[in-house]
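To whoever is on call:

I kicked off a structure prediction for a single chain this morning and the downstream step that reads the tokens threw a length-mismatch warning. I double-checked the sequence; it's 143 residues and nothing unusual in it as far as I can see. Pasting both halves so you can look.
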Amino acid sequence: MRSVLVDAWRLVVPPRGDRHGPLSPLLLGLTVLTGLVDAFSYLVLGYVFVAGMSGNVIFLAVAVGGAAGFSVAASILALGGFCVGALGGGRLIAARGRHRGPLLASGTTLEAVLVAAAMIIGLVASRPGSGSPRYWRCPTTQA
């Protein structure tokens, strides 16, 4: 049991001089952040995931099938945003891809800035996830 706890601690706080540097804690932080972003977006933005795309493909199929409460536009917008992000990530890799440490640091910083901007918009907006940002539900699928 002790070795499991030691391994877990080393994952969160790698020893000085570790060959992977801060990679493990940064990836762990990104995993937690991704889960929080998806939970928030699913609950507030109306059945759409913004961090993982497989659910949006399913939601798109359900919306095309005419199920109430699902939006074709929301799913397409989320998939399009993912494609834009993937393109940006590819450009970041091309610019900083020689060593994964600076690449991960740049990606993490960019994601933190974007999440902070989204949080500020959410705090300033009177009712986030309502009105036209709710993705124009089709008349046949309005709840």
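Update from on-call: the warning came from a stale cache, not from the record. Cleared it. Sanity check on the structure: The longest helix spans residues 72-96.
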